[in-house]
């Protein structure tokens, strides 16, 4: 498998992990803690794994950007698209309350938008690279 294939697999795993973690956090809700002066929202008992997976996936976003966006080829971004579609299925199979529907809308936007945006960026990069090759000074 070439680096583009690894980038697509990385994007797939990233999007599924982020979506699964976010779905668990929406399902768990907020555990309010009051200390007299202020309140804080925490992760309820039993939902720590979702928070851990969500944070690890979020921290892996910069290397994913480097893997997927660094070339002018938009096809590795299809891993993110498929992963977001899988996460969308996980979210909608868990529930259909307002929080789940908002998360599902965000996942659908990622599934549709990321390849389109990266394709446009890739074409712009390729056009700029082609122009720089043809306009060499003599």
The residue fraction in helices comes out at: over 70%
Amount of beta strand = 5-15%
Using the alpha-carbon principal axes, give the shape: elongated
Reading the helices and strands in chain order gives HEEHHHH
Low-confidence stretches: none
- The assigned structural class equals mainly alpha
Spatial arrangement of strands, main beta sheet: 1-2
Number of contiguous helices? 5
Q: Quick one: how many beta strands? A: 2
The major beta sheet can be summarized as: 2 strands, antiparallel
Q: How large, in whole angstroms, is the Cα Rg?
A: 19 Å
User: What's the end-to-end separation, in Å?
Assistant: 41 Å
Average residue pLDDT: 82
Description:
The longest helix is centred in the last third of the chain and has 37 residues, at 98-134. The mean pLDDT is 82. The protein is elongated and about 70 Å long. It is built from five helices and two strands, in the order αββαααα. The chain has a two-stranded antiparallel ribbon. It has 138 residues and is mainly alpha-helical. The termini are far apart. 30% of the residues are buried.
What is this structure's SSE topology?
Elements: H1 3-28, E1 31-34, E2 39-42, H2 48-59, H3 61-69, H4 78-94, H5 98-134
Antiparallel strand pairs: 1-2
In a few lines, what is going on in this structure?
This protein has 138 residues and is mainly α.
């Amino acid at each position: 498998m070439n680096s583009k294939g690894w980038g697509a697999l990385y994007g797939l795993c990233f999007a599924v992990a982020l979506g699964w973690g976010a779905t668990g956090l929406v399902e768990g809700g907020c555990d309010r803690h009051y200390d007299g002066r202020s309140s804080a929202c925490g992760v309820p008992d039993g939902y720590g794994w979702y928070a851990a997976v969500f944070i690890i996936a979020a921290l892996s976003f910069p290397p994913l950007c480097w893997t997927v966006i660094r070339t002018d080829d938009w096809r590795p971004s299809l891993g993110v698209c498929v992963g977001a579609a899988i996460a969308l299925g996980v979210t909608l199979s868990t529930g259909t309350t307002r929080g789940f529907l908002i998360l599902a809308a965000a996942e659908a936007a990622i599934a549709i938008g990321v390849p389109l945006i990266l394709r446009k960026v890739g074409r712009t990069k390729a056009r700029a690279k082609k122009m720089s090759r043809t306009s060499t000074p003599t």
